[in-house]
Amino acid sequence: MSTALTFRELPYARESLATVLATTGAIGEGGVVANSVVITDATLFYPHGGGQPGDQGVFITADGRTLKVLDTRKGDNGQVHHLLDPAHGLEAGQSVTQQIDWERRYAHMRMHTALHLLSVIVPHGVTGGSIGAERGRLDFDLGEASFDKDELSERLNALIAADYPVTSEWISEAELDAHPELVKTMSVAPPRDAGAIRMVRIGDVDYQPCGGTHVASTAEIGPIQVASIKNRGARNRRFTLVWDETAEEQA
Ligand SMILES: [Zn+2]
């Protein structure tokens, strides 16, 4: 049985009930059982993927024990692996209340959506990326093109302030294959789920395959700035975004 990805349709849900399907040991470095994997029938926890970190949080048992979820990873057969300390004591069939670390996840949602907008104003192939609660980055194959970070920051904040709605929809693999220009990421194949592709739309400015979690409207991202543009090889440039704390204080 696969894990229902509740976070996908309900990215704002912070707490939900789930049933434990199975638990196994996760083999860490040196063959030591570092953590234990807990698989549930449904999850609010986003598993590490597409540059977005796995969620952290807690599972609360029916008898009131609070168990830390250290990380979340993709497993086999559509299952999601929650990594817990091996002393969790959970068994298949037990119900748990899942609570995600919302502050961290919401920062990921805001930063992730901001990186979509960065790919709008830097219209070049994306060769890599990573999302954090404090900063996010995308690497682009720029070729000869060059950009000014202050000008980009201004354009980015204008797109954020325009408050575009962010929505998702599913298309078939055949539809995506007929429109390869929709794929901006050169290094990662878009997530495919039983022949369907999840597309994320930001108003009329961005439309691309993505399996991550996003905010519902761009204004939620808040003030941001392009902190640096650095060389990563002959053609690649790394664009790093950070929150604009000074603008937040003025607001
Ligand atoms: Zn996305």
From TrEMBL:
UniProt keyword annotations, A-Z: Metal-binding, Zinc
Location relative to the cell: Cytoplasm
Pfam family, one: tRNA_SAD
Record domain Alanyl-transfer RNA synthetases family profile: where: 1-251
Domain of life: Bacteria
InterPro entries noted in UniProt: Ala-tRNA-synth_IIc_core, Ala-tRNA-synth_IIc_N, Alanyl-tRNA_Editing_Enzymes, Thr/Ala-tRNA-synth_IIc_edit, Transl_B-barrel_sf, tRNA_SAD
Cofactors, names only: Zn(2+)
PROSITE patterns: AA_TRNA_LIGASE_II_ALA
SMART domains in UniProt: tRNA_SAD
PANTHER family tied to this protein: ALANYL-TRNA EDITING PROTEIN (PTHR43462), ALANYL-TRNA EDITING PROTEIN AARSD1 (PTHR43462:SF1)
Protein name: Alanine--tRNA ligase
